[in-house]
């Protein structure tokens, strides 16, 4: 057991960021399972059908549950409808933001772009800033100081995690970012991953959103009711739990500063409802290895390469059963992480690249 | 220009609507065969983070980079939006018999 843990500096302009660039850990060449080109092309193939169906279900579900919730407002009968509406608004938007940001949900470009903008608004992520932050997340996945999307830093801030189950901190920061961007200010950290020519676009979107939220607040005052906010804005809080629950599983408790997604990402088998809300991102090792593969082809990709990957977690519960004890151990020793062993059929980890990840306990 | 034509491969080595990597004298290129059976060539590495485009996906006249899904028109080299902002260098290609040639210049 290591006793003197290494203090991590997660700032994008700090010590670890600089070190990752100097050592070549940033922008490194990551491990990929070998897949013949013909099969890869089949997997990467784009379609409109699955995403049109899922988007109709998603937005249609919101119209129905939001409509019934609003109609029954004032009675307890509205609660179940808002519970579902909240998850569709505050959680399914996370996976739609993600998949459409990659441009893989639909074959038709404008459909990706429209759903991307809608989802960004709901999940409160500036479509410009967050496209670039996610680009960096794929270049430098869980590389300390480089990845702007590390959900659980070490040592874990468990209080923050609990608040975020209700979107409290994330939505708060999102509002501050929106106000700052709307005032024409791009932060120093944002400047490290958003190119200068893209920054005015981020400012324009923030101003449009500000106007939409202002209109919602005005409507709430005019009606003397929070109902408009229950439909726009607040579902980001009361419906966030599902995307937080699934999102933490992506990398939580696993290795950092490695360049093999088998060590730092987690694939989890999930129930069909969660897979619909999460758009199959439970196949997370597969997604990171091959971001070109659309969500609807990830189960096929998983079946094709699972011989080369650590065994997936059999359920969400099993994922939490291994992750929570790991978080608790990281409170005492931030170098601790869950090691992922490979099946005998897999290509071994590159020992020269991953000495820490393979040796530590 | 004609002096610098370099043989790349035979036409059947690239499927329709696909791309192939071609390395020559320390440089790397991507050679495309469009759905209407014409051949094109660009630099082999994405202008965003130097990833091999030949591992990407060809759709009509677009090549999508395998790393962050950045898109280029491989006929013109034009970058089609974030995260790719810098155009790709394109190169002349000709078909002589069954052989694909590229003029690297
Ligand atoms: S490396 Fe090609 S889009 Fe990023």
UniProtKB/TrEMBL annotation, chain A:
What does UniProt give as the signal peptide span? none
Keywords from the named record: Membrane, Transmembrane, Transmembrane helix
Q: Which residues cross the membrane?
A: 55-88, 158-176, 210-234
Q: Which Pfam families match?
A: FA_desaturase
Q: Name one GO cellular component term.
A: membrane
- Entry-linked CDD domains: Rhizopine-oxygenase-like
Q: Which domain of life is it from?
A: Bacteria
Question: Among the record's GO biological process terms, what is one?
Answer: lipid biosynthetic process
Annotated ranges, domain Fatty acid desaturase: 75-312
Q: Does the keyword Nucleotidyltransferase apply?
A: no
* UniProt GO molecular function: oxidoreductase activity, acting on paired donors, with oxidation of a pair of donors resulting in the reduction of molecular oxygen to two molecules of water
The name of this protein is Fatty acid desaturase
Q: Which organism is it from?
A: Xaviernesmea oryzae
Automatic annotation (TrEMBL), chain B:
Pfam families hit by this protein = Rieske
Q: Which Gene3D superfamilies match?
A: Rieske [2Fe-2S] iron-sulphur domain (2.102.10.10)
For the Rieske domain, which residue ranges apply?
A: 6-102
Q: Which InterPro entries match?
A: MocE_2FeS (IPR012747), Rieske_2Fe-2S (IPR017941), Rieske_2Fe-2S_sf (IPR036922)
Keywords annotated in UniProt:
2Fe-2S, Iron, Iron-sulfur, Metal-binding
* Domain of life according to the entry: Bacteria
Can you tell me where the transmembrane regions are? Answer: none
Q: Which GO terms describe its molecular function?
A: 2 iron, 2 sulfur cluster binding; metal ion binding
Q: Which cofactor does it need?
A: [2Fe-2S] cluster
Sorted alphabetically, which PANTHER family does this protein's record hold?
A: FERREDOXIN-RELATED, RIESKE DOMAIN-CONTAINING PROTEIN
Q: Per the similarity annotation, which family is this?
A: Belongs to the bacterial ring-hydroxylating dioxygenase ferredoxin component family.
Q: What is this protein called?
A: Rieske family ferredoxin
Its ancestry begins with: Bacteria, Pseudomonadati, Pseudomonadota, Alphaproteobacteria, Hyphomicrobiales
């Amino acid at each position: 057991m290591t006793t003197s843990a290494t203090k991590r500096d997660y700032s994008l302009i700090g010590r670890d960021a600089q070190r990752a660039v100097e050592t070549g850990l940033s922008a490194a060449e990551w491990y990929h399972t070998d897949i013949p080109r013909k099969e890869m092309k089949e997997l990467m193939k784009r379609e409109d059908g699955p995403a049109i169906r899922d988007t109709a279900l998603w937005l249609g579900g919101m119209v129905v549950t939001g409509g019934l919730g609003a109609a029954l407002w004032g009675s307890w009968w509205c609660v179940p409808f808002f519970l579902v509406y909240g998850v569709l608004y505050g959680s399914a938007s996370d996976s739609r933001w993600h998949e459409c940001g990659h441009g893989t949900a639909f074959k038709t470009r404008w459909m990706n772009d429209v759903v991307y903008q809608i989802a960004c608004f709901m999940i409160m992520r500036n479509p410009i800033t967050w496209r670039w932050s996610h680009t960096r997340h794929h270049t430098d996945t869980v590389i300390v100081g480089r990845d702007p999307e590390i959900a659980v830093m070490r040592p874990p801030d468990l209080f923050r995690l609990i608040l975020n189950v209700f979107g409290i901190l994330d939505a708060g920061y999102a509002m501050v970012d929106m106000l700052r961007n709307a005032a024409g200010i791009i932060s120093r950290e944002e400047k490290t991953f958003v190119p200068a020519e893209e920054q005015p676009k981020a400012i324009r979107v923030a101003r449009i959103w500000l106007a939409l939220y202002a209109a919602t607040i005005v409507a709430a005052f005019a009606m003397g009711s929070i109902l408009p906010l229950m439909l726009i804005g607040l579902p980001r809080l009361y419906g966030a739990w599902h995307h937080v629950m699934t999102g933490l599983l992506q990398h939580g408790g696993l290795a950092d500063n490695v360049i093999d997604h088998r060590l730092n990402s987690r694939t989890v088998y999930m129930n069909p409802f969660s897979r619909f809300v999460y758009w199959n991102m439970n196949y997370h090792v597969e997604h990171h290895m091959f971001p070109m593969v659309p969500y609807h082809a990830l189960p096929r990709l998983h079946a094709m390469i699972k011989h080369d990957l650590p065994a997936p977690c059999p359920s969400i519960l099993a994922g939490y059963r291994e992750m929570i004890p790991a978080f608790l151990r990281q409170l005492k020793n931030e170098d601790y992480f869950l090691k992922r062993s490979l099946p005998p059929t897999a290509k071994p980890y590159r020992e020269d690249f991953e000495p820490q990840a393979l040796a530590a306990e | 220009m004609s002096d610098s034509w370099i043989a790349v491969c035979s036409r059947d080595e690239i499927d329709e609507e696909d791309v192939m990597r071609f390395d020559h004298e320390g440089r790397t290129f991507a050679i495309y065969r469009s759905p209407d059976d014409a051949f094109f060539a660009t630099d082999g590495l994405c202008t965003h983070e130097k990833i091999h485009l030949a591992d990407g996906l060809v759709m009509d006249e677009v090549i999508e980079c395998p790393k962050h899904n950045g898109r280029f028109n491989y006929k013109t080299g034009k970058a089609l939006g974030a995260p790719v902002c810098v155009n790709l260098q394109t190169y002349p290609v000709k078909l002589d018999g069954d052989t694909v040639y590229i003029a690297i210049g």
